[in-house]
Structures are given as structure tokens and as C-alpha cells.
Amino acid sequence: MIFQIPIDLNIEDRTVQAIIDLDTGFIGFTESKNGEEIEYYYAESPLEFKQALLKSLEPIFGERNLVNFKISGKNEHMKYVSRYLRENGNSDTRD
Q: Mean pLDDT for the chain?
């Protein structure tokens, strides 16, 4: 089952929704333009879409961030780098 939540964004002269997929955790945007839907990944979307999403969500932000490293993509990258360095030693390959 696909479970996505649409959030209407307040962007002047544009009809844009942020789409949050609760199964994957991905966020994307869909813009309706001239009767056509244009879909964007979060990373490739226009900056104003991201800013409008944050502005929409700001009223429900918590006062304090408890942090969750299990869902941090950066944490996953660091785990990979750390594992790679451990498995391959700390050798210097520069000439």
C-alpha cells in the first residue's frame, strides 16, 4: 500500500505540493502546471519549494530536538566509511 501525505505549499503563482511517503521516508514535490504534473525529487527541486515546506512545517516543530541517529543518512555514510577504513587498514596510498 502506498501511503503518501500531500502538503499544499504557499508559493505565489504556483500550485505545488510536498509529498511525504511514509513507507520510504522520501520527500518529493509535485507541481501542477498547465494541466500537467511535474514531479521532483527533494534534492533536485527548486529551493523555493524546500523553503515553503519548512515554513509550512515550522509551527509544528518541537522545542528541542531529541535526535535519532538511526535515521540519519549522514550517519549511514559515516558507518560505511568507518567500516571501509577498518577493513582496509589505515594505509596511506599517496606516493
A: 87
Q: What confidence category does residue 91 fall into, taking pLDDT thresholds of 50, 70 and 90?
A: low
| Cell, residue 23 | 513507507
Rounded Cα distance between 93 and 5, Å, is 48
Each as own residue / partner, the long-range contacts of residues 53-58 (CB below 8 Å, 24 or more positions apart, any chain) are 53/7, 53/9, 53/18, 53/27, 53/29, 55/10, 56/7, 56/8, 56/9, 56/10, 56/18, 57/7
Q: What is the DSSP letter of 62?
A: -
Query: Computed over its alpha carbons, how large is the radius of gyration of the chain?
Result: 19
Residue 95 confidence (pLDDT): 44
